[in-house]
Fold:
Amino acid sequence: MRLKWLAPAALLAGTLAAAPGPPQDSAIPRYDHIFLIIEENQGGSLLAGPNAPALTKFANTYGRATKYYAVTHPSEPNYVALVGGATYRIFDDDAYYCKQGDKRPYCNLAWLPFFPNHTIDAPNIGTQLEAAGLSWKEYLESLPEPGSLVVTAADPKDPRGPPVYASKHSGFLNFTDVQQSAQRDQKIVDFDQLNADLRAAKLPNLAVIIPNLCNDMHGVQGNAPSDCLDSNTAVLIRRGDAHAKVLVDAIMLTKTWISHDRDAIVITFDEDEDGGKEGCCGISDLDPTNSGGGRVPLIVITNHGPRGVVDSTPYSHYSLLRTIEDAFGISSYLRHAGARGVVPMAGLFKDGP
Structure:
């Protein structure tokens, strides 16, 4: 059964939403750092199976949302929604630069008359953080070089290997202010920079962390290791689970995590690739590009917050965005993050036991 809250027409039209928030908004404490790890293509049943022991342990030890939903299918619009508050009617995985009628590579559906502009001239969570004097970075595993605008690529350490980097998993690259930024090579960086920042304890307030296609449970086709093949589901999940544990363990060893700073690690998935259409909280049957992407896992790990939380409140990617905005003191919510029925995850981010 679909849980529905239709977004107000004003939000569908396109600017920041500044509607008064529910009491839960004031219940979100201010955070120093949030590390958002986005994985691929697994449904809510992942944590009930045997192939993700690390993620299951994190979920049971710290906190999880049992009714958390993606906003649509396929991948790209979910990544855009997570940082921008809307899909902007993107319904495909075409390149971030594509527009209607575009004949450039990776613009496969641009011939359609209703094809949307994939470059978005609108605010995103990075815009908001910079306006508030805060910092952000997106860490993309196997990115060819800092600030790269390449659409897909092999890992630089294995140039003859399969393409494991995909720009469709970078929601930020769809936005004009990121594409045109003189500091793009300092904001859109690879995992070498992530490791350096973790070691040096020079971390942004918001770190969006995107593993490559071998490590995010997506997988590839063709000439690739057996645990990276998209047809080898169980082994691919185990590989992604082990990789996620390495990331979480590394964050937990940082000075900020063991200090008095208030930090959180959030792990979620872009969509339920099995075709789930369930959705809630800012989605709308009137917009097929924003009509629900199935139930997916959502794990929240805090260094000073509650333990063993099982939250059954309906949430979506827009709820997560709203929570991040609240955690950094931002009250002008982006698009559907401010829609009726979208509430922050107070139980998962509160202070104390």
